[in-house]
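ok new one. same drill as before - structure tokens go in, u give me an amino acid for every spot. 81 of them this time. try not to just spam alanines like last time pls lmao
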């Protein structure tokens, strides 16, 4: 069975408004804003916001820290991350 393409998101720091923003990479729309990065990644918050897709979690300097796929069984690679 062919898998549908996952929507890509990024979680990055916006220095203009001092917030972490979860954005849809295709539309550039902000899906959700967070005070801290910890608030964004704790307790399944990203999973609830994304539902289905891939999230690139970036460091404050903009470099990619990790990438997560939701739901986990949609991860295209047999990776731990």
């Amino acid at each position: 069975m062919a898998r549908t393409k996952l929507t890509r998101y990024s979680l990055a720091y916006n220095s203009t408004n001092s917030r972490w923003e979860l954005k849809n990479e295709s539309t550039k729309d902000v899906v959700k804003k967070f005070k801290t990065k910890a608030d964004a990644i704790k307790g399944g918050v990203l999973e609830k916001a994304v539902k289905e897709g891939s999230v690139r979690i970036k460091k404050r300097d903009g470099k990619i820290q990790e990438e997560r796929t939701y739901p986990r069984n949609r991860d295209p690679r047999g990776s731990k991350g």
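The longest strand covers residues 8-14. and btw The CA atoms of residues 39 and 70 lie 18 Å apart.
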